[in-house]
Amino acid sequence: TKGIGKGILEKFHTENWDVCITGRNQKAMKDIQNNLNNIRGNSAIGLVADLCNNSKANELFQYINQNWGRLDCVVFNIGSGTGTRGIDTTFESNLELIKLNFLNTVNQFKSFLPLIENSKNGGSIIFIGSIAHNFNVRAPFAYSYSKRALNIFAKYQALRLARNQIRVNII
To answer: How far apart (Å, rounded) are the C-alpha atoms in residues 50 and 48?
Structure first.
């Protein structure tokens, strides 16, 4: 509901795509939904869903499957770069960042892939990465290496799914 995810959503909407907005912040999500629907009526659906919560993600999958039956594109913009930097990080905080930025994204990818496979034109999957995967930036170590793992995962999926005309990219 903010940043790059919001920008991608608005761009797709200007290209006449129907969009489904998800987020944890109901007010921000509803504001975006209302703004988009004022531009082009009933073209945006907003659903409160924390995609790190598997039951909420499953509810979202069921809703999309019942109402649309497919996804032509999905943008995985899951994660956070907050946390302690340097050697003072704890195992638990590192594990939480890895779960949030990599493992939850992979889990949701596996859940939503069948909806992409139902797309008429092969579909597109976009992962939101970070320059932190490749450069020395002021970010927690676990954030950097979880984004590095996501980069490798996305490239592997691009090779694997290309034969099905499913495009996979990471930005």
So the answer is: 7
Find, among 24, 134, 7, 121, the residue nearest to 75 by Cα.
7
The pLDDT tens digits of the residues spanning 19-58 come to: 888 887 888 888 888 888 888 887 888 887 777 778 888 8
Give the strand order in the sheet containing 167-170: 73-76, 124-127, 167-170
pLDDT, averaged across the chain: 85
3-state secondary structure of 90: coil
Looking up tokens 């504001």 gives 31
* Phi-psi domain of 50 (left: phi exceeds 0; alpha: psi -120 through 50; beta: other): beta
Q: Tens digit of pLDDT for each residue in 70-99? A: 888 888 887 776 666 666 778 888 898 889
pTM of the model: 0.85
Helix axes 141-161, 91-98, angle to 10 degrees: 30
Q: Which residues fall within 8 angstroms of residue 113, CB to CB, at 6 or more apart?
A: 125
Residue 57: HSE in the Cβ half-sphere, 13 Å Cα cutoff: 17
